[in-house]
Amino acid sequence: MTRHTFSRRTLLISAAALMAASPLRTLAQGAGPAIHVMKDPNCGCCSAWIEILENDGFAVTTEASGGTLLMRYKLDNGIPQEMVSCHTGRVDGYMIEGHVPVADIRRLLDERPDAVGLAVPGMPYGSPGMGPESQREAYVVYLIRRDGTAETFSSYQAA
User: Is the dihedral of CA 106, 109, 114, 115 positive or negative?
Assistant: First the structure.
């Protein structure tokens, strides 16, 4: 009969290996910014945009809303009517209106300007969640200032 003894060192190394392989540790390391999205429950493009965020590490929660309630939410949170799109997110104190690319959201969170947030008005084809980027139409991501003015944050040329 073989007798196995574990040294303190073996036990610590084994515990460390288990921790490194733990799904909870992986989940905690991959957890990105938390974003809450208000959207129409029947909107497929909103769901596609949310999937893009999740695949990039954002922790996304959603809330079904529509019609005048969703429009009121947008306006009450500083989104000018000419900047509206189909869904609205809130991340770290900023509003994200429409199909804003992940890179722009991350840049906003890194730079932390004094602003309401970002917007891609309407639903431009080829923006995230709106069809293939290879067939994209040109569009602009706007930075919405607290006074209601907007300026170009980034722009995407037609593909």
Answer: positive
CATH 3.40.30 correct for 32-156: yes
30 in Cβ contact with 59 (< 8 Å): no
pLDDT digits (tens, 9 = 90+) for 101-116: 999 999 999 999 999 9
DSSP for 23-50? HHHHHHHH---EEEEEE-TT-HHHHHHH
Instruction: Using alpha carbons only, give the angle 7, 11, 12 rounded to the nearest 5 degrees.
Output: 115
- Residue 117: which of 146, 140, 134, 94 has the closest Cα? 94
The domain locations on the chain are 32-156
